[in-house]
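Supplementary Methods. Inverse-folding protocol.

Structures were first reduced to a discrete structure-token string of length 321. This string, shown here, constituted the complete conditioning input.
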């Protein structure tokens, strides 16, 4: 710690943050020092999970190294390392314990939604049309998590985890459409003003204070910012509230990114396609991640029902794009 932080420190205590490991099996530790505290994020203990999410953990380490020196709504970075052979990773970042989290099940109120929208616009504006984005891949997630086999097991996995949930026919048809040509569909849709995107913007990855801090950059890549906006609105805002503020939030985001030759109408179209990104991540998380605890199963239920509600509100289907 002294070497990493560049000053002599002593460790007073180490405690795990949260009662449960994350969905990807990673561990968060709070290390209290004689001069303050930091958070250490470590890859999963389970070797299989460590290998499965090796690329994701490498991406997050790379993001924090990239973020150093940028004015971004993310924790301050102190140290990061990734071992290609084992998939092990470690991050030492700023401790954000003075900030508040909002339970995913509760959903985000209007004031907090505005904060997140502004934070996303800040990130997307910073990385739009910059040299830094050139080294950020666009569609690598499809190499790591092939959608078709995940989708083929998804209905049975939902029935096992959430026996009370019935998947609508229209939702199943949307998944079948995506499974038939995943890379081709996304390649057609991920066109426009590309920037650095988070791809997992939901309440568990956001901390609130006077401003917002965005956490967990394992799925980050190059893409359309409107997809991040949709991802958050779908996953983390109750459908009745989302319906009331959606148009306003899209317009607010559009004004904040201020991208020449990108129309509000196109931003709205790109926003709707965010539902397909959300579907991809939901299927991956349901079939590939640790969903053993009751808390995680409740999380999956709420997440799925909010996505279904969005798809039904906009009649999202294969002919929508």
């Amino acid at each position: 710690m002294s070497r990493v932080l560049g000053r002599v420190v002593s460790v007073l205590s180490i405690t795990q943050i949260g009662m449960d490991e994350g969905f990807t099996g990673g561990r968060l530790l709070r290390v209290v020092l004689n001069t303050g505290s930091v958070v250490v994020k470590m890859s999963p203990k389970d070797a299989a999970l460590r290998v499965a999410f090796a690329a994701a953990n490498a991406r997050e380490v790379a993001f924090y190294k990239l973020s150093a020196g940028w004015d971004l709504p993310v924790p301050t970075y102190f140290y990061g390392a990734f071992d290609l052979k084992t998939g092990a990773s470690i991050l030492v970042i700023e401790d954000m314990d003075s900030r508040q989290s909002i339970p995913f099940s509760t959903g985000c109120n209007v004031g907090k939604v505005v904060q997140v929208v502004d934070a996303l616009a800040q990130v997307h504006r910073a990385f739009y049309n910059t040299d830094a984005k050139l080294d950020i891949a666009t569609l690598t997630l499809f190499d790591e998590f092939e959608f078709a086999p995940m989708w083929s097991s998804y209905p049975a996995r939902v029935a096992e985890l959430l026996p009370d949930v019935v998947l609508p026919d229209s939702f199943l048809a949307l998944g079948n459409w995506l499974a038939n040509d995943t890379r081709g569909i996304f390649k057609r849709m991920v066109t426009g003003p590309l920037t650095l995107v988070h791809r997992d913007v939901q309440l568990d990855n956001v901390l609130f204070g006077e401003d917002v801090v965005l956490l967990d950059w394992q799925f980050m890549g190059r893409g359309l910012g409107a997809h991040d906006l949709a991802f958050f609105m779908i996953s983390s805002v109750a459908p009745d509230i989302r319906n009331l503020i959606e148009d306003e939030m899209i317009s607010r985001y559009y004004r904040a990114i201020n991208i020449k030759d990108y129309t509000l109408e196109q931003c709205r179209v790109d926003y709707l396609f965010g539902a397909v990104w959300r579907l991809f991540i939901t299927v991956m998380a349901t079939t590939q991640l640790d969903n053993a605890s009751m808390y995680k199963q409740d999380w999956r239920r709420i997440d799925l029902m909010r996505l279904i509600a969005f798809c039904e509100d906009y009649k999202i289907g294969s002919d929508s794009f």
